[in-house]
Structures are given as C-alpha cells and as structure tokens.
TrEMBL record:
Gene3D superfamilies: Potassium Channel Kv1.1, Chain A (3.30.710.10), Transcription factor, Skn-1-like, DNA-binding domain (1.10.880.10). Residues 429-480 form the BZIP domain. The lineage of its organism: Eukaryota, Metazoa, Chordata, Craniata, Vertebrata. The keyword Ribosomal protein does not apply. Residues 354-380, 538-569 are annotated as: Disordered. GO terms for cellular component: nucleus. Keywords: Activator, Coiled coil, DNA-binding, Nucleus, Transcription, Transcription regulation. This is BTB and CNC homology 1, basic leucine zipper transcription factor 1 b.
Length: 569
DNA sequence: TGAAATTGTCATCAG
DNA sequence: CTCTGATGACAATTT
C-alpha cells in the first residue's frame, strides 16, 4: 500500500507484488493444459509448442511482428532454423553445450530481456580459463552507493556495471529465473548486520568457545558485507515479488518447521547440500548482489542475521544455474535456478568447516556464513559441534581425523582403537564423540520420523474428511431419491384409492404396508376417511361386529382421521 | 519479554 | 556383556 501524499488520510493505492507472478503462473498452467492457446510454434526440426500469442508477443520482437499480423485463430508459426525449441520451455539450463544455441535462438527471436550482456557474462564463464570470480561483471557502483550504507557499499571488489546481466526467463511464461526483488529488505538486513553487536559472537556456542579457551574478542572490527548492485536499482520494486521458486524452496524447508507439506526427502537433502553452496548474492532484474567474500576477508555474521539474509536471498534471488556438474545433474532444474547460481568460484563459497589443522586460531570467525537459514542452520550447528569435537581432538592429540570416528563401521572403529594405543582420555573422548554424533543423527532421524508420521496422519485425516463429505453427499442424494419415490407411490395410491372404491380389507392392507419413514401423508387421510365411512356403513348393517373386521389394523378407525396420518402409519 | 520451535545431549530400553 | 538405534525428557538457544 502506498498513501497518496495529497490525500493522505483518504486514498490508498494498492499494488500487489504477487499478482504478476500469479498471472504468469496461471498462464503457464493454461498453456500446459492447452487452454486458450491460440498459436502453435513449430521449429524447423518439427517440434511444436502451444502458446498464447499475446505472451509471445510481449517478450519477443520476432513474435511480436509475426503474431500481430496474424488474424487466424490457432495459427502456426514456424521458427527460423537456428531457433531451438528448448528456448521456449519453462526453464532452460545454460551449459557449454547449448549456450551458443540459446544465444542464436535468443538473437533470432529478439527476446527483449535476454540481451547481449547476458552472454557477455555467460560465455567467459563457460569458456574462459580464468576463475569465474575474475570475470565477475562490473557493477553500477555509483547508483548503488546512494542506497547503501557506507560500510557496506565501500567495496574494493570488482564492480558491476550498468549493463549487468539480467537473468531472465527464456520462456515467456517463466518467472522462476527472473523476477523483481526488493532491495530495501536486503539493505535493511545489511544495515542490521553491520550494526548488530551480536555479530561477533554466537551465544549458542559459548560452551564451545569456553572449551576452546578462546574468548570472543569484542573489539573485532564490525563485519563488512560487500554489496553489489547489478542493475539500476528499480524504484518500483519496493515490495519484491517472490514467486514460485522461493515458495517451492520454502515448502521444502517447511517440513522442518513442522508445516507438513509433502516433501521429497531426496530433494530436500540435495537442497540442503546446495544451500551450502549458496553465495549471498542476489541477481535479478531490479536487484542488487549481496556477496559474501571468501574466507580470507569475510567477517562473521551471527546466525539470526545470516538466516534473515539467506531468507532474503531465498526470496529474491533469480540466479543463474551453476555449471557445477553435481548440481545440474542431481537437482531438478528449478532447484538449480534457485540454489546454484554462484557467479563466483564455487570453491570460495562452499561452506566448509575448517579441518582440525586449519582450525587452530580461527574460532568461529573462521566459518563462512554462506550456509545459513533453515536446514543449513542444522548443519551449521552440527558443524559447530563437530568443530568442538575437532578442537577437543586437537587438545588430546588424536592420531586420526575426527570424521573417521563417526563415519566408520563398528568393526573398523574397533580395529582402529586396537591399532592405536590411546590414552584413557583419548579413548574416552573418542567414544564420547562417536556416541554423541551417532545419537545426534539418531535424534534427527527420530524427529523426522515423527514429522513424517504426523504428516501421514494429517493426510489420513484429510482423506477421511473427503470420504465423509462424499458419503454425506451420497446420503443426501439417496434421501432425495427416496422422497421422490415416496411421492410417486403416494400419488399412485391416491389415484387407486379414489378410483377403485376398495373394500375396507384392501384399504386396511394398503395402510398396513405404508412405512413410517415414507411420508405418504397425502393419501393417508383419504384412507382414513374411506375406512371411516365404510365402517359406519358396516356398523349400520352389522351392529355387533364391525369393529372386529378391522381390528387387526394399525389404524384405529374409531378415531377421527388425522391430518397427518401418522397415527395410522 | 515470553512463548514456541529447534537442536544437542543424556538416560533408558530393546534388539 | 557390549554396542547400536530409538525415543522421551531436558536444557540451551534461536526465532
């Protein structure tokens, strides 16, 4: 919402940041179901692609020209030879093998947002022998400085120029790769980071710090987050749209928070791995890049701040898919789009806990903070525990790496202990570490099982609810059917009674077969009155036995006919 | 500031 | 008897 400055108290403007995303998503769903599609795009290879011509026209000069001149419904557009169909798909992975194809396709189609700068960036990344970080595009330093706090904008790093890459969708429908994002949140976060006194320590690990005998030096310089803006900061992106991908990612991670969305465990695991490789980098149309510097120059950000930062990243980044083979092969494409995306050398951004040898003297500040938020927090915490173990191992001078203690099988572990003549202290430590690590993992599994169990129960409840609804509907339908049948029987009886002049016995039989639950109310009074009149006649003729003739009936014919007929039913 | 959530650890049990 | 995994309970910490 924004307030009209002239009519501050009475007028508001509402602009939904989610709306564009919803529209695009809906269009893509329609396209997939071939709803309202009015054009077929065919490649030279014969592959076809149904689409909405308005969407095509809105993002490609080529289509704009072709489509605007068409007036036939369900027209067919044949693409130039150099255009490959995958460029129109929801997501396309950029790799060495296809980048030229994509470039040619994009060029031929005149995709408005996928301009040369994109490939200026991508091609060196794929084909240059230099480190990717060395080809990091230049940044619009001047423009970003305006909106940045001094301590985060004064960067010595390579800057991005105004023509920085704008990662955008290859597909007209795609929003996962490119979307607007709020700068302000990031800036606020960065400000908080720099101002937050807690950044130099993490209370949760005081125990660890104490054990390591390393007091936190509160006089450490405040953290400096290097900040890049890769495009002119958009003024209308105050509220960033955080569409599908971030939602999907959050969905995955939500399970840990107890929101029981269906989660593919493999996906989640992979996601966790990938999150470790995320850089604090935001890269989209109206966004700025936040990049955590490598370990030699980075400062520590405390966990909450990191979580918030990461959350912002999750919500805002529209990064490029990494060329890391592991990532492209093992993750769903959308996951890569969300997670991979380091424009920088992966080696500097992978979250790695320092090995024991490296650990000395690093304390917490040796930790990269690229791994934060949600599940990675868990891993981070685990890493601190591991670090604690490593430190202890260092103190008692264990002759083998800590990792082995946990990872190796029982037999191997026993063998190792047998081979090494360990002191009592070492032995204790090793067993303790193994036990705790195993237990930690067991606790995780246990909790996960619990969550899964709850989730399954939730599903079961939903299923039963649905089933109940269906049964209620069925009951209602059957009830109506019964009523209808009763009414027709009633009408039939009425006709029979009025036209057949039945003797009392038959009337009595008829009354006998009326069921209480079948509301044959319409003809019961008629029977009663008929019986009543016939009874009078018979009484006059046979004064002594008239009542007995109908005595077996449910109907008490001495009574006055009731209006509702229930008394005889 | 307090409640809720998260996570590691310990104790205990069963296999 | 020891080891291991599962799990309840608790505490520390974060959200």
């Amino acid at each position: 919402f924004s307030v009209d400055s002239h009519r501050r108290s009475s007028a508001f403007t509402f602009e939904s940041s989610l709306h564009p995303g919803h529209v695009l998503r809906s269009l893509e769903e329609q396209r997939q179901r071939d709803v309202l599609c009015d054009v077929t795009v065919v490649t030279a290879e014969g592959q076809s692609f149904r689409a909405h011509r308005s969407v095509l026209a809105s993002c490609s000069e080529y289509f704009s020209q072709r489509v605007s001149s068409m007036c036939i419904q369900n027209a067919v557009i044949t693409l130039p030879l150099e255009v490959r169909l995958f460029c129109l798909h929801l997501q396309t992975l950029f790799c060495k093998e296809n980048v030229f194809d994509i470039q040619a396709s994009v060029s031929a189609l005149g995709f408005k947002d996928l301009d040369g700068a994109c490939f200026d960036f991508l091609l060196p990344k794929f084909f240059s022998s230099t480190k990717p970080s060395a080809v990091r595009p230049l940044c619009c330093k001047k423009k970003c400085k305006k909106s940045l706090p001094r301590d985060v904008s004064d960067s010595d790093e390579v800057l991005l120029d105004d023509k920085e890459v704008k990662p955008v969708a290859e597909s007209p429908y795609q929003e996962e790769v490119a979307f607007e994002c709020s700068n302000s949140d990031i800036i606020k976060t960065l400000n908080n980071v720099s101002k937050n006194d807690k950044v130099t320590q993490c209370p949760k690990y005081r125990k660890f710090q104490m054990a390591c005998g390393k007091e936190i030096d509160k006089s450490q310089p405040k953290p400096v987050i290097k900040y890049y803006c890769n495009s002119p900061c958009s003024s209308n992106s105050e509220s960033g749209s955080c569409p599908l991908v971030s939602r999907q990612v959050e969905d995955l991670f939500d399970s840990r928070r107890g929101n029981f969305h269906p989660v593919d465990a493999n996906k989640k695991e992979k996601l966790c791995e990938k999150k470790q490789q995320i850089e604090l980098q935001v890269n989209s149309d109206s966004t700025c890049n936040v990049k955590k510097i490598d370990e030699t120059e980075e400062e520590i950000i405390d966990r909450p701040e990191r979580s918030r930062l990461q959350s912002n990243i999750n919500n805002c980044n529209g990064n490029w898919t990494s060329d890391e083979p592991k990532m492209t092969n093992s993750c769903p494409v959308w996951l890569n789009a969300q997670l991979g995306s380091s424009l920088q050398d992966q080696s500097t951004s992978v979250w790695q806990y320092p090995k024991s040898s490296e650990y000395e003297g690093t304390s917490q500040s040796g930790l990269s903070s690229v791994n934060s938020g949600d599940d990675s927090d868990t891993e981070e915490t685990a890493a601190y525990c591991e670090a604690y173990a490593r430190e202890r191992a260092r103190q008692v001078q264990l002759p083998f790496p800590v990792d082995q203690i946990v990872e190796m099988s029982r037999n191997n572990f026993q063998e190792l202990l047998d081979k090494q003549s360990l002191t009592q202290e070492q032995l204790e430590l090793v067993r303790d570490m193994r036990r705790r690590s195993k237990n930690r993992l067991a606790a995780k599994r246990c909790r996960k099982r619990k969550l899964d169990c709850i989730y399954n129960l939730q599903c079961e409840i939903n299923k039963l609810k649905t089933e109940r609804e269906m049964l209620i509907q069925e009951r209602s339908r059957l009830s109506q059917l019964r009523l209808k049948t009763c009414n027709s029987v009633s009408a039939l009886c009425q006709r029979v009674c009025s036209s057949a002049n039945l003797p009392p016995e038959q009337l009595q039989q008829l009354a006998k077969y009326t069921a209480a639950e079948c509301p044959l109310t319409s003809y019961m009074p008629l029977i009663d009155s008929l019986l009543s009149s016939q009874h009078k006649q018979s009484t006059q003729l046979f004064p002594s036995g008239g009542k007995d003739d109908i005595g077996c009936s449910n109907t008490d014919t001495t009574q006055e006919p009731t209006h509702n007929g229930n008394s005889t039913a």
